[in-house]
Amino acid sequence: MVAEAQVAEHAVDHATTGPTAGDYIGHHLQHLRSHEQASIIDFSVINYDTVFWSILMGVLGLWLLRSVAKRVTSGVPGRLQAAIEIVLEMVDNQAKSIVHNAQSRKFVGPLALTVFIWIFLLNSMDFLPVDLIPEIWKRIFVATGHEEHHAFMRVVPTADLSATLGMSIGVLCVVLFYNVKIKGLGGFVHELFAAPFGDKWFLYPFNFAMQMIEFLARTVSHGMRLFGNMYAGELLFMLIALMGAALVPSSPSGMGIALWIGHVIAGTGWAIFHILIVALQAFIFMMLTLVYIGQAHDAH
Q1: Where are the alpha helices (DSSP H) in 71-160?
Q2: Any catalytic annotation for residue 225?
Q3: 15 in a domain, yes or no?
Q4: Averaged over 123-139, what is the pLDDT?
Q5: Rounded to an integer, what distance in angstroms lies between the CA atom of residue 127 and that of residue 237?
Q6: In this structure, what are the phi and psi dihedrals at residue 78, rounded to the nearest 5 degrees?
Q7: Phi and psi at residue 33, to the nearest 5°
Q8: Interhelix angle for 48-70 vs 102-124, to 10°?
Q9: I want to staple 256 with a disulfide (CB 3.0 to 4.6 A). Which of 147, 150, 178, 247 is the partner?
Q10: pLDDT > 90? residue 251
Q11: How do the residues of the chain divide into helix, strand and coil, expressed in percent and rounded to 5?
Q12: What is the Cα–Cα distance from 115 to 123, expressed in whole angstroms?
């Protein structure tokens, strides 16, 4: 009876005080999924929030580029047109310096621009207040008759490893396509077995193994780099948000106010610094895409 009373008292205390910091962060790191994940790697699971925000940002990026293209002028450009022209010139210069095939650049250049704009917009979702979209979604979720503790919503697609690895696998497919297109199927297969150690029959197994390791390592690191940086940034925003939650009636007034002020200062500073991370990670992903496609044009 005593044990039951202690359990009941703990439950009441938890309900009164609300979720802990661990509960808060754990809830925010959960995805809105098609069903529960059966194992660590389960390809049948769909993260609906990642798919939704990725498509929405993709449509927004295309609409943005199209609207600028329709209003382009040869006179003094507006701020948006000037910004797009700077990005376009930067991407075009990088594509020319890395991919020397002019015919390939007709596709690779726009691809690199699309990658940069899309990932920049996906990363920029991290600037939204941590609880804004999840809170709106929770209210909608509960209003439709669902349980509140299942109202998961993550709004930064690039903080989802499945999304970033999906992008890197897409780049791998483009790389394989240009390997076959430029070198021919026979030439590409020969390169898989003849490089990097030399065109000797007894070296073929080692060459092929090294080629597979290279493709796998490039693809995994390509996606993991973007995921790791954005996941860390998202987690830091959550930790800063917890400082703001200290301003509650149950906390000492002085400590609560100090933590809330610290939350505002830290949040502002990190958001400003995060602008560089958002742009830099989009640029790095785009550059690696160009480098890998450029390498597909080179013969070993």
Answers
A1: 79-98, 102-124, 132-143
A2: yes
A3: no
A4: 91
A5: 9
A6: -75, 180
A7: -110, 160
A8: 120
A9: 247
A10: no
A11: 80, 0, 20
A12: 12
- Domain membership of residue 267 (yes or no) is yes
The verdict on residue 112 lying in a domain is: yes
- Could you tell me the two tokens for 151? 């109202």
Placement of tokens 């993709």 in the chain: 58
Which tokens sit at 181? 């297109």
Res 5 pLDDT > 50 = no
Catalytic residue among 33, 225, 250, 251: 225
Question: For residue range 40-87, what is the model confidence (pLDDT) as tens digits?
Answer: 677 788 999 999 999 999 999 999 999 988 888 877 788 888 888 999
Contacts 24+ apart (CB under 8 A), 104-107: 104/178, 104/182, 104/293, 104/297
Beta pairing partners, 283: none
**56 lies in which domain range?**
22-37+46-296
Q: Which residue has the tokens 């040869």?
A: 74
Closest CA to 281 of 162, 55, 116, 168: 116
Structure tokens, 278: 């958002």
Residue type at position 77? P
Gap between the Cα atoms of 298 and 300, Å rounded: 7
Give the tens place of pLDDT for each residue, 144-202. 888 877 789 999 999 999 999 999 999 999 999 999 999 999 999 999 999 889 889 99
Structural domains counted in the chain: 1
Q: Exposed/middle/buried for 204, CB within 10 Å: 0-12, 13-18, 19+?
A: middle
Which residue is catalytic, options 79, 229, 250, 253? 229
Which of 26-30, 91-95, 144-148, 258-262 bottoms out in mean pLDDT, i.e. has the lowest?
258-262
Looking at 71, 221, 250, 251, which residue is catalytic?
221
Q: Is residue 17 part of a domain?
A: no
Residue 221: active-site member: yes
